[in-house]
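quick one before i forget lol
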Amino acid sequence: MRRFFEEYHRIIGILLLSFVIILLFSTPSMIFAKSFTTIGTELSHASSDETLVRSKIDFGSNEHMKAFPKEIGNWWGTDYETVGLAERLGADVLLMRAYSNPDFYQPVFFLIMQSNNRSSFHPPIVCYPALGYTIVEEGKEEIPIQDVSWVEEPLYTKPLTKTGISTNRTISAKKLVVVKESPDGTVTERRVVLYYYVKEKPVSNKITMVRISALAPLDGSYDEILNICEEFMVETVPCMFEPRRKDPSVFSLLLASNPALGTVTILLLFLVPLAIIFYPQIRDMQRRKYVSRGGQRSKIKRRYNK
């Protein structure tokens, strides 16, 4: 073991010094964070359009869902009765509201649902056909966000990180256009649907979906309704995700809490790896001192014997 240490002391010391530097200039949230949250469009796998965020609410808490703002900008929400609906949708937590705005003639329907079991979760592409709708269009929308302070800056390169998380200034949402028809084939209802998933990583079986939908004209363009849904989605973002906080580094915290003790702690953290790196030089210095002291004692003895 000693031979191994003497042979690789420099590598061990450099690695330990690197660890100390990373530790001191990291933040507590970077060290102790067990998971992170992303917004994305895919349920079963990660995608390049995922965005790293900080959750402001607990999507798995019924209390947090009940406390979700009914007033958002000029929008005002009315709750739907969800008794029995959560079970049919495979949801453990469910919020369902209709939000109205005096500037728009059409309300939007807002839904947040979370399930602890992915296999029982009903995504819109499964749920709407089960309710008698036909999906006539499927795509993806990039919804621009004015204030992106709630987006986390990844530790890797931009615009795409090694983990596949982008630093987009948009939210990627899936879009569906669904219709319901009468027995003779006449379209009786058409809806525009936008939704995305909120996922906890790296390991979690929980899945949360945020969905916004609205009724569209039975034929012709649905662009106006799509714009209304996108505008409302932008309004909901600050209610669910909080601005990025700049945490102080461990180095700053040590000096701020107790300058004297913090300085000593930092010095000791650096001295240990430096002592390992320069172990041979320190050992040789100790040997020379020992030999020098031994020689001086011999001289004193000879003088005393004379």
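fyi Confidence is low (pLDDT under 50) at residues 155-167.
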